[in-house]
Specification:
Elements lengths: L3 H15 L26 H8 L5 H6 L22 E9 L2 E8 L9 E9 L5 E7 L2 E3 L11 E2 L11 E6 L8 H7 L17 E8 L12 E6 L32 H10 L1 E2 L5 E2 L10 H12 L1 E2 L6 E2 L4 E5 L5 H10 L3 E6 L2 E6 L7 E4 L10 E3 L10 E7 L7 E3 L3 E2 L1 H6 L6 E5 L6 H14 L5 E6 L11 E6 L4 E14 L4 E8 L31 E8 L5 E9 L10 E8 L5 E7 L5 E4 L8 E9 L10 E4 L9 E8 L10 E9 L6 E16 L5 E15 L7 E9 L4 E14 L4 E12 L13 E10 L2
Parallel strand pairs: 17-24, 19-22
Antiparallel strand pairs: 1-9, 1-14, 2-3, 3-8, 4-5, 4-9, 6-7, 7-8, 10-11, 12-13, 15-16, 18-23, 19-20, 19-21, 23-26, 24-25, 25-26, 27-28, 28-31, 29-30, 29-32, 32-33, 34-41, 35-40, 36-37, 36-39, 36-41, 37-38, 37-40
Helix pairs in contact: 5-6, 5-7
Length: about 775
C-alpha cells in the first residue's frame, strides 16, 4: 500500500494525541501499521481493489487532503497567546510571532522616539537569518552594528542618520538582551528582566526611530527568510553506513539542509524540541532502510540544468506549527514537492523520488495465476481524469508571494477527453522555486495519463516484491514489450504463497526536465518615494536691465506645475553638460512652472537641469534635460554714465543716488572689477551781504550686499572724496573695487552731494559741482 497506511497511522496517532494532556498534544508519535496477513477467503479481490482506488498516480496523491497542508498563509506575523510553537525546515519565510513591543527613549522634544518589537522566529534553536523583507523590498543590513540596536537597515537611513535596526539571536543565547533590560526592565506592566533569555528561541529585535518623513505610511510589514534548523543526514554518518561526523544521538553534529527527503526523514524519526519533547514519528532507523532513503536523498541533490540555470533538483522548506500541522501532512507536503512517494510494508517505510526505479524483476503472461481473479482497468471515468495541471507555490523570487505556473496543457489529451479541458490545481507549499514547481507539475500531468492498471495473483517466487518496485512485463495477450509497471499494492498469502499485486503503468519519459522558465519575479511597486517631476525644457534666455539691454546669459528651466500641486517646493540643479560640473542648486516655487538661473552661467554653453519635488516623503530626481544658454557677452557687463554737468537745480543737500548697478546672484568662481568716478569742484558763492559760504562737490561709491532675498542690504563705503580748498577748477575722482563672493545680490551705487560750511538751510548752488559721472562693472573670468 503506497502512503495510505502510512498516513492512516499518522492520522490515527494524531487523533489519539488530541485528547491527551496539553504537553502531549504537541508531541506527535508516528505509529506504524503493517500489511495485514490473512487467508484467501478473508482478503479477496475486493480488498485489493480498495488499494487501487486510492491515490494511484502522483497527481491524485497531491490532490488528497490538501486543506490540511501546512503553510497556507505565507509569512504573516502571528500575535496573541493562543498560537502554536513553530520552527523552520529547509529554506522558508516567516513573519514570526510578536512577543513584545514598546516605545522608549526621548530625543530632544520627542518623547518615546524609539519603538521596539521582539519577534520570535523559531522555537527550536539553530536557525539562520538569510535576509529581511520590509514592505515590498529586500533590505540591506549595514556592516557596523549599533551596540544597542543591532545592524542598521540602510534603506531607512535619512540625511545620514539611521532610523531602523535589526538584531538577531539564533536561540543559543545564554543571557537576556542588554538593551531590552535597560529600556524595559522597569516597565510597570511588562518588565523585560534579566531572566528573559529566550532559551532555545530564535528571535529578532526590530527597532525604529520616529520620523514622519521616513515612516510615511507607518511601519511596513516585515518577513524573515530563514535557513531552518539543523537536521540529521544519514549520508554523513559513518556509523550508519555513510561518511561523516553526523550522529543521530548528538544533534550538535547535525547541519542545515533543504533536501526534501532529508527533511522528511527527520520528521519521520522525530525532531527533538527544547525540553525533551519530540515532534514526529520516533521511527527507528532500521525501519527507514538506509540504502532506500539515501538513494532518494541523492536524487534530490542531483544537478539538473546547465550554466546559470543549473540547480539541485528538489529542494525547499516549510514553516511548521507543532500543534497545528500533523506530521503526516508535513511529510506529504515535502514529498509532493519532489515527486516523492512513500510505502509501508510490515512497519518498514520506503520512499522513491521522481521517475520509476530500474526494473527489479521481469514477468510474462505465464507468471500470472490464471485460476485466480484478474482485473484490468484501461482508464478511469471522466470525473477522475485530468488533462492539464496548474501549480501554485510560494516563490522565493517574487517576495515569497504565492505564484502559479502557466497551465500545462495538451491539445491531444483534450481531444481524447471529448474536447474538454479538465484542469487540476496543485499547491506545492514546500517548493519555493518556480522551475522546480514546473518540473513537478509537468511530471504529475503526464503521469496522470498512465491509466492501465492490472490486478491479480503472481506465483510464489515474486514474494520479494515490495510496493514501489518496478517490473518489466512482456505480454502477448495485451500486448506489451518490456513495459514498465509499478507495484502500488501487494498482499502475501502464507497458505498458498501466492502474491496478490496491483500494478500501474509508468514511463520514465514523463519526468523529462522542462525548458527553463523562472516565472514571476519580484514586482516593482511604485512607491511615493519614486515620484518625480520631469523638466519640460531648458532654454537660453538673457537677463536684461531697466532699459531692456541684455546684460548676462541665463537658462530658463520649465515644468508642468499641475503635476506637483501638492509639492511644497522643488529642488533644482543645473550642470555643465560636457563636464557634469554642478553650477546651480536652488529651492524654487513649484507653482511657478519656471525658474531662471543666471549665476555661474556662461553664454552659448550646453547646460542640463533636473528637478525633485519636496513632498514631505522621500522622492526621486528627474532625468537630466539638456539645453543651451543664450549667446550674451558678459566681459563688459554693465556701463552707465551721466555725461556733461549735473544740473545745479538737482542738488538736494544730502547724498543722492545717481547711478546704481546690481550684480544679482554671485558665486565664488566669478571675479568682478568695479570702476567709478567723475569730475567735481568746490566753489564759493554769496549767501547774504554779510557772509560768504562755500559749496563742496562730494562723490562716493557704496558696495551693498545681502546673502538671501529676505535680508537687508549691508553697505560698505568704497570711495568718499571732497576738495579741501577753494578751487573753481574741475578735479577728477576715480575708484576701483575688486569683488568675488557668494551672495544673493551685490549692488554698487555712485552718490553725489554738496555741503555748506555755515549753519542752517542754504539754497542750492547756482552752478554745477559735478560732471561726467560713470560706473562700470566688469566680469574678469
Amino acid at each position: 500500500m503506497i502512503r495510505i497506511l502510512f498516513l492512516a497511522a499518522l492520522l490515527t496517532c494524531w487523533a489519539t494525541m488530541a485528547a491527551a494532556d496539553p504537553v502531549s498534544a504537541i508531541i506527535i508519535g508516528l505509529k506504524t501499521i503493517g500489511v495485514s496477513v490473512a487467508g484467501i477467503g478473508a482478503l479477496g479481490l475486493g480488498a485489493i481493489q480498495l488499494g487501487v482506488s486510492l491515490g494511484l498516480n502522483l497527481l491524485a496523491q497531491a490532490l488528497m487532503g490538501k486543506p490540511k497542508a501546512p503553510g497556507q498563509t505565507i509569512g504573516e506575523m502571528a500575535t496573541g497567546e493562543a498560537t502554536s510553537q513553530r520552527t523552520i525546515l529547509g529554506t522558508f519565510v516567516t513573519g514570526g510571532h510578536l512577543d513584545y513591543h514598546g516605545s522608549h527613549t526621548n530625543v530632544g522634544d520627542t518623547p518615546n522616539a524609539y519603538y521596539t518589537r521582539v519577534i520570535s522566529l523559531s522555537d527550536v534553536p539553530g536557525v539562520a537569518l538569510n535576509r529581511v523583507l520590509m514592505g515590498d523590498q529586500w533590505v540591506t543590513l549595514g556592516e557596523t552594528a549599533d551596540p544597542d540596536y543591532g545592524f542598521p537597515v540602510t534603506e531607512y537611513a535619512f540625511k545620514g542618520r539611521d532610523y531602523c535596526w535589526i538584531k538577531f539571536y539564533d536561540g543559543t543565547q545564554t543571557s537576556a538582551d542588554a538593551m531590552l533590560v535597560d529600556r524595559f526592565g522597569a516597565d510597570p506592566d511588562q518588565p523585560w528582566t534579566s531572566d528573559a533569555i529566550g532559551t532555545g528561541i530564535a528571535y529578532a529585535i526590530v527597532t525604529a526611530r520616529f520620523n514622519p518623513k521616513v515612516w510615511t505610511g507607518g511601519l511596513p510589514p516585515i518577513k524573515f527568510e530563514m535557513t531552518g534548523i539543523k537536521v540529521y543526514d544519514p549520508r554523513k554518518d559513518t556509523t550508519a553506513g555513510g561518511s561523516g561526523a553526523h550522529r543521530w544521538a548528538n544533534p550538535a553534529t547535525w547541519e542545515i539542509s533543504d533536501n526534501l527527503i532529508v527533511l522528511a526523514y527527520n520528521v519521520a524519526r522525530g525532531i527533538p524540541l527544547p525540553g525533551g519533547e519530540v515532534y514526529g514519528g520516533r521511527i527507528p532507523a532500521e525501519d527507514l532502510p538506509f540504502s532506500n532513503w539515501v538513494a532518494a536523498m541523492n536524487v534530490c541533490d542531483t544537478l539538473v540544468g546547465t550554466g546559470e540555470d543549473e540547480r539541485r533538483q528538489f529542494r525547499g522548506g516549510l514553516e511548521i506549527a507543532f500543534a497545528d500541522n500533523e506530521p503526516a501532512d508535513v511529510i506529504d507536503a515535502l514529498l509532493a514537492s519532489c515527486l516523492g512517494q512513500i510505502s509501508e510494508n510490515g512497519g518498514v517505510f520506503r520512499v522513491r523520488v521522481g521517475e520509476p526505479d530500474v526494473a527489479a524483476l521481469a514477468i510474462t503472461d505465464g507468471d500470472w495465476i490464471i485460476t485466480q481473479p484478474q482485473r484490468y482497468d484501461p482508464h478511469p471515468g471522466l470525473q477522475n481524469t485530468s488533462n492539464g495541471v496548474r501549480v501554485a507555490h510560494p516563490s522565493i523570487d517574487a517576495l515569497w508571494e504565492v505564484v502559479q505556473t502557466e497551465p500545462l496543457l495538451d491539445a491531444e489529451w483534450e481531444a481524447d477527453d471529448g474536447d474538454q479541458r479538465l484542469l487540476s490545481a496543485v499547491r506545492l507549499v514546500a517548493c519555493p522555486y518556480h522551475q522546480q514547481a514546473r518540473q513537478v507539475g509537468q511530471a504529475m500531468a503526464k503521469d496522470a495519463r498512465r491509466w492501465r492498471t492490472h490486478t491479480g495473483f503472481l506465483t510464489p517466487e515474486f514474494q520479494q516484491l515490495e510496493p514501489l518496485d518496478t517490473i518489466e512485463w512482456t505480454s502477448a495477450r495485451w500486448p506489451y514489450s518490456d513495459k514498465l509497471f509499478e507495484v502500488v499494492e501487494i498482499s502475501y498469502y502464507p497458505g498458498t504463497l501466492l502474491v496478490a499485486v496491483t500494478l500501474r503503468e509508468r514511463d520514465p519519459e514523463d519526468y523529462d526536465i522542462p525548458a527553463v522558465d523562472n516565472g514571476p519575479q519580484a514586482g516593482g511597486v511604485t512607491a511615493p518615494g519614486d515620484r518625480t517631476i520631469p523638466v519640460t525644457a531648458v532654454t537660453g534666455v538673457a537677463v536684461t536691465d531697466a532699459a531692456s539691454l541684455q546684460r548676462r546669459p541665463a537658462i530658463r528651466i520649465t515644468w508642468d506645475p499641475d503635476l506637483v500641486e501638492d509639492a511644497a517646493a522643488l529642488l533644482c540643479e543645473a550642470k555643465v553638460t560636457a563636464t557634469d560640473e554642478l553650477v546651480a542648486q536652488k529651492v524654487v516655487d513649484a507653482s511657478k512652472g519656471a525658474v531662471i538661473v543666471s549665476a555661474g552661467i556662461i553664454g552659448d554653453t550646453g547646460y542640463s537641469a533636473r528637478l525633485q519635488p519636496v513632498l514631505g516623503v522621500p522622492t526621486a530626481w528627474s532625468d537630466w534635460e539638456a539645453g543651451t544658454s543664450a549667446d550674451v557677452e558678459i566681459t563688459d557687463f554693465n556701463r552707465q554714465a551721466l555725461p556733461g554737468e549735473f544740473a545745479a537745480s538737482g542738488y538736494t543737500g544730502v547724498w543722492q543716488n545717481v547711478i546704481q548697478i546690481s550684480l544679482l546672484d554671485t558665486d565664488l568662481a566669478t571675479a568682478w572689477e568695479i570702476r567709478a568716478g567723475g569730475d567735481y569742484r568746490r566753489i564759493a558763492w554769496e549767501v547774504d551781504e554779510y557772509n560768504n559760504g562755500i559749496r563742496s562737490g562730494r562723490i562716493r561709491l557704496l558696495r551693498e550686499l545681502r546673502k538671501t532675498a529676505g535680508d537687508s542690504f549691508a553697505a560698505a563705503e568704497v570711495m568718499n572724496i571732497e576738495l579741501t580748498a577753494l578751487d573753481y577748477e574741475w578735479r577728477a575722482a576715480v575708484a576701483r573695487d575688486d569683488w568675488a563672493g557668494l551672495y544673493k545680490e551685490v549692488r554698487y551705487t555712485l552718490q553725489i552731494d554738496v555741503d555748506t560750511s555755515i549753519v542752517g538751510t542754504a539754497p542750492p548752488p547756482d552752478e554745477s559741482c559735478h560732471r561726467d559721472i560713470f560706473l562700470i562693472a566688469k566680469r574678469n573670468n
